[in-house]
């Protein structure tokens, strides 16, 4: 394949970035593709039927991504691009209804209300398969908004929350939900950025990232990880990977939802901060991380009048029986000391060798990256939702429970140490610390 890369014309070799990282048990290399292999005569009738249904669903889904140039991160166009959820789907319909209600009614952060589902296009992006796996399974990086866009979104959240608080004081007996002004032009002109959390695992020293540089003529540039940042290939003093936007969808309701993206990024950042700290992030990445978590805190804001009205007996309180869920959520804070992983991940680590010996189910999507035993039970899901809505629950508790709910109880996989890795940038993995030990 011929291409122009940074002014150089020639054959373009396309390696699979960090493709040597193994797929997690239950997480197939290509969980949801824009192209599906041709069905063969082998397999059961039900398997063929489900495969045909998946093909039909993907055919419809392709039309929704017409405005996307290619991979959300790189702009690279490829038939193997996968559909990635910002908030991962859940298996049981009842639980999905609770998660959907949490996003639409409790938090009020979706463009669509009654028609929103976890498969809504505002919750979906396209990713090159290795980058999808790195994001969803290993959390070697986080996708967030650019610094300028984060600052703008934080301003919107502050203004929205203040308006919500004012309305709550007016309509005290029937407090209104938060309403975001989706017509604000800022929310349709956003740029995005990347925070590399594990430089040595995201790309090996000899592996480039190929990103679209300009549309016409179509020009690509090679990038490599240098000093914890993506920089121009063999140009260690070049500027970091710039803010990007490779998506331009044909309807405002289908635009990538920045608040769902922030929820996704917050799960990676909180996990990384508890297990490895932010000490090794660059100054630029630290600013992005701090702004992302500030926006995440504002998403879980609730007017103070709720607590006042609770004291007056206006709201129904939550039975004490669900309070142990806070202990379940607190395991994420204690995981680093105990050697486990957050969100119920300790059991998942113990089961990894057993899981590796089990056959993966066919046509499983990115919601199936963990075993059933790691996932929250239906009772736990209902209990978490109830506790989040309890006016007595503090902001920190709501944030913690929100991460637990949206992760479904699944943890990120341990980072495998591979030959050729330079771990000088990963001190948390040396000396028996971190997930890869």
What is the succession of H and E elements?
EEHEHEHEHEHEEEHHHHHHHH
Radius of gyration: 22 Å
Low-confidence stretches: 1-40, 316-372, 430-437
Percent of residues in helices: 25-40%
| Terminal-residue CA separation | 41 Å
For the record, the count of structural domains works out to 1
Number of helices: 13
Task: Give the strand content.
Answer: 5-15%
Oligomer: single chain
Report the average pLDDT across residues.
76
> Structural class of the secondary structure composition?
alpha+beta
User: Quick one: how many beta strands?
Assistant: 9
Largest sheet: 5 strands, mixed
* Large-scale geometry: globular
Structural features, described:
The protein is of the alpha+beta class. It has one domain (2-428). It has helices spanning 45-64, 93-106, 129-138, 147-170, 199-202, 258-275, 283-299, 305-311, 324-338, 345-350, 352-356, 378-389, 395-407; strands at 2-5, 8-11, 82-85, 124-127, 141-145, 192-196, 209-214, 219-226, 229-232. Strands 1, 2, 7, 8 and 9 form a five-stranded mixed beta sheet that branches. Helix 6 (258-275) crosses helix 7 and helix 9 (324-338) packs across helix 13. The chain is globular and about 65 Å long. The model is unreliable at 1-40, 316-372 and 430-437 (pLDDT under 50).
């Amino acid at each position: 394949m011929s291409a122009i890369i940074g002014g150089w014309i020639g054959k373009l070799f396309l390696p699979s970035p960090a493709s040597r990282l193994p797929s997690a048990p239950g997480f197939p290399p290509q969980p949801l593709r824009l192209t599906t292999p041709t069905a063969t005569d082998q397999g059961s009738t039900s398997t063929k039927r489900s495969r045909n249904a998946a093909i039909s669903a993907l055919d419809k889904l392709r039309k929704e991504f017409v405005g996307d140039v290619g991979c959300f991160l790189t702009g690279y166009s490829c038939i193997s691009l996968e559909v990635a959820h910002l908030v991962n789907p859940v298996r049981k319909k009842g639980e999905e209804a609770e998660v959907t209600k949490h996003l639409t009614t409790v938090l009020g952060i979706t463009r669509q209300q009654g028609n929103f589902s976890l498969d809504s296009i505002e919750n979906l992006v396209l990713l090159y398969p290795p980058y999808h796996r790195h994001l969803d399974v290993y959390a070697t990086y986080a996708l967030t908004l650019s610094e300028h866009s984060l600052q703008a979104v934080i301003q919107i959240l502050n203004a929205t929350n203040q308006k919500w608080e004012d309305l709550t004081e007016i309509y005290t007996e029937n407090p209104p939900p938060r309403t975001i002004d989706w017509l604000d032009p800022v929310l349709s002109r956003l740029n995005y950025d990347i925070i590399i959390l594990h430089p040595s695992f995201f790309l090996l020293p000899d592996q480039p990232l190929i990103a679209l540089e300009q549309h016409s003529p179509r020009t690509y540039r090679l990038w490599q990880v240098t000093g914890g940042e993506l920089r121009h290939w063999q140009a260690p003093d070049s500027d970091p990977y710039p803010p990007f936007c490779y998506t331009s969808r044909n309807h405002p309701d289908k635009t990538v939802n920045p608040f769902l993206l922030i929820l996704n990024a917050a799960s990676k950042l909180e996990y990384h901060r508890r297990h490895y700290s932010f000490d090794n992030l660059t100054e630029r990445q630290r600013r992005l991380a701090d702004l992302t978590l500030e926006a995440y805190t504002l998403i879980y804001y609730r007017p103070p009048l709720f607590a006042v009205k609770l004291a007056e007996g206006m709201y129904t309180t939550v039975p004490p029986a669900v309070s142990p869920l806070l202990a379940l959520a607190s395991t994420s804070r204690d995981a680093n000391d105990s050697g486990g992983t957050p969100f119920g991940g300790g059991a998942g680590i113990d089961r990894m060798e057993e899981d590796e010996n089990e056959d993966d189910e066919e046509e499983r999507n990115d919601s199936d990256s963990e075993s059933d035993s790691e996932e929250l039970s239906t009772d736990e899901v209902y209990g978490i939702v109830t506790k989040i809505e309890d006016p007595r629950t503090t902001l920190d508790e709501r944030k913690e429970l929100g991460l637990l709910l949206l992760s479904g109880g699944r943890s990120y996989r341990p980072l495998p140490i591979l030959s050729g890795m330079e771990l000088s940038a990963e001190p948390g993995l040396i000396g028996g610390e971190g997930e890869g030990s």
